[in-house]
Structures are given as C-alpha cells and as structure tokens.
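Allow me, if you will, to draw on your knowledge of protein folds for a short while. A protein sequence and the structure tokens that stand for its backbone fold form the material at issue. I would ask you to consider whether the tokens describe a fold that such a sequence might reasonably adopt. Thank you for your consideration; the sequence and its tokens are set out here:
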Amino acid sequence: MRTELVISADSDRADIALLEDGRLQELIKEKGDDSFSVGDVYLGTVKKLATGLNAAFVNVGYEKDAFLHYHDLGPQINSWQTFLRRTLKGKQQANITNFETSSNIEKEGNIGDVLKQGDQILVQITKEPISTKGPRITAELSIAGRFVVLVPFSNRVSVSQKIREREEKDRLKKLVRSIKPKGFGVIIRTVAKGQSAEELQADLDNLMRKWKQVHKGIKRENKPYRIFREMNRASAFLRDVFNESFASITIDNQELFDEVKDYLEGFQPGSSKMVKYYNGQMPLFQFANVDRQIKGAFGTSVSMPKGAYLIIEHTEALHVVDVNSGNRTNTAENQEANALQVNLLAAEEVARQLRLRDMGGIVVIDFIDMNSAENRRAVYEKMRDEMQRDRARHKILPISRFGLMELTRQRVRPETNIVTREENPDNLVEAPIQVIDTIESKVSAVKEREVFIHVHPFIEAYLTKGLFNSVKKTWQKRFKKKIVVVPRDAYTMLEWAVMDKDNKSL
C-alpha cells in the first residue's frame, strides 16, 4: 500500500488529505485560529457544581462552559491543585522529582468534596465543542509524543493493547521504567513496538521540554487562558499516522513545508526527503485529484463499484447508512450470494466513510438482508477488519436479525460535512450567462498583466471553446492581458474567482 499526504494551507487554514493507493481516506480541515482543540491545556475557573451529574462546569474562555465529570478529575487531582497553587505563587519548579504527592481521591466520590465554585484548575481538552455543547475536559493532563505519552503525578507504566506479543510488552515496560523521569507515568504507544532505548529516550526528553513549557505558561491571571497548545494538526496527524508505507508528503505552503520537514527529520532522520514543496499554478487539491474525490464522497448518496451505493443520513441522535444494490449486475448464482457480495463491498466503504467524515457517536447500518448466519458473520468480520485501521475508539455489534449493524465511534471534534449539492438557480440568482459578464468586468478592472480565472469545469469549457475565437482569446486581445482559465472541481457551477500568479484574490 502506498500512502500519500497532501496538505494545502495558507495563513488562516490547512486542509489535510490522506490517500492510500490514490484513494482519499481521511480529510481534516484546520482553521488557523483553532482554539479548544484536543490536547490544548487551559487554566480555567470552576463556574458551578452540578451535584446531580457529579460534575463541574468550568470556564475556559469558550462561550459555553466546559464539562468536567468527577471520573475525569484523575486520582491525583489534589496533587495537581497543590502544584497549581504553588506555581501561581512562584514557589514551584517544573521538576517534580521530590514533589510530595497527595493520596488518591475515592473512585466513586462526590465532586463537591474535591472542588468548589471559584477554584482555579488546570484542564485539558478531550472533546472539542460540538453543536450546542461546550468542550469536554479532563483534569488528568497528559502530553503525547511519537512513541510514548507522559502523565505527570503518576508512576504507572502501561502498554498499548494493540501490542499483543508478551515478550515485546515486557521489554518495553522494563526499558521505559529504567529511563522515565521520577514523578511521571508513561503510556507506551503502538508505534513504539521494536523501537530502541535511544529513540524512546529522545521522545521522553522532548516531552519533558513540553512539560516545562506547560509549567512556564502558568501565570497569575484571573481570566481563563490557554497555557499550552498541542502542535498544529498537520504535525499531530503525522505523529499519529506516519509509518513505513508513506511514500510522499506534498505541501503548498513554504512555512508549513519547513516545519513538517524539520519535524520528520527530528524523529526519523532521512524521512524528510519525501516531503515535497508544490508551487504549481493549479491548486494542489485539484492537481492531486482530491477535489474530485471530495465531490464524490461527501454527498448523501455514495457510489460503489458495479452500481451499488450507500445512502448516508445524519440526525441529532445518530447516523444512518442504508446499503443498496442499485442496478448492480447480478453475477452471483443466487440472491443470497449477491447480497453477500454487496454487503462486503459496503462494509469496506462504510469504514472509509467513517474515517473520511469523522462520524462519531452511534451509527446504524442497514445491510441487505441475508438469511445465512455464516454470511452475516462474514460481513461482521469484514467490518471489524476494516475498522482496525481507524485510530478512533470504536465498538461494533454483530448484525441483528433485522439486518442492522450497530456501532459506536469516538467523537472528539465536529463531523466533517461538505455540501456537494447545488441549489437550483431558478429565482435565486441572475441568469447564469450574466456570470460571464461579471467575470469580464472584473478582468477588465484589475491592473495585473497576467490574471488567472478559477471557475467550475463547465464554465472553463465555455470560456475556452474555439481555437482562435474563444471568449478567453477575445478578452486577451481586448484587455491586452495574459489570461489563464483554471478549472476547479471544488467550485459550484456559478462560483468563480480572479487571482494573480501567487493565487491571491484580485
């Protein structure tokens, strides 16, 4: 399998596309001013206690208070509070080697016994604001690295459950216990499998530097503020997914290109060679065929091979996926075998769609009915195998007697939703031909001698048809400018933009 990463960015956003063998698998859209992202650490203030929920609402600067449940306090919350108070008074260093920890709080205690209204508290975002809800937070802070996760005020060393070999688990535990700093616990990630002591030590050293940044960021301010930000989403994404299957990383932003190159070189020397800078005139997502795939993957109806398709609907409570055979040619010997073939294809596509759209919560899949228990088991195992590639926590139930499969998938940020349908222009816009006149007026008004017109492919075809007498040629002669028409798969029919050679709007 060949894995490629395509990143298109400018000053206020970054779009990240993960492709496997040329097929879009994940899409992340990051805004430059993203706040309250997973992993960010805030100094918040307890706004009120909800004893009925055994939780607290904490002001972290968002319009809605963040939700902190008792079980998310962590067993060492009292140690954290002592550390915070001492740091705010300037009496506590980042070094906690000799820090005298408090006893663990009760597992099933009352939040009113631990916190009170007005208390300041260090918290970390675990779920971004979604819909009308504020962020979900934890008071048990952790700092994630490439191979390990650092947990202050803990002495526990644990290993990812995805590492199943007992010998490797024991080796990693023994190794980490010998090098971890006193006063810190460590969670060993799956990618640590087979890594040397030097690589793990380098990762721990980097995490200790980040811990010092957290400590340094704690200041005497009454208002809530962010004291530590997780790395940008592009680097964080690479940290979690980078492996030996990666063949290329293409970026069209010079600053981000340098940052990603340095980051890769830091944890795997020599790997930065695969990072390429793209400066072509055609937008990167257009060049890499990402825009076209987005248009085909984010609609209500999603096509599959040989005429089969999915219908994906979203509600407040859950997501619903309906599997249809459509006009698929029935090559199987009977209806049962044909249903099995379609359902196996659907399981693969649904797993992809969950990653691509970042759909979280409850998902119900209505597979085509199958009478055979063996066939239902085969579809369940296929779904389970395909979901192994998903980094989000999930749980899958076998197909019920009604032909429904239920699953849950961890939701930490809002679902990626891209509108692919276009409104009927009747009674909504002026006559479409007037768009051409508007573009012409814009081209005539700009002072640049070279302009680039970005339009829907159908409009591009209209502007460039004819070898000598096309609309584009006519404008070039009339305005004495070089004109390049760029087809954009991502644009709606009547969407357009006039840009210079640096892709800046004119």
Summary: The first strand starts at residue 3 and ends at 10.
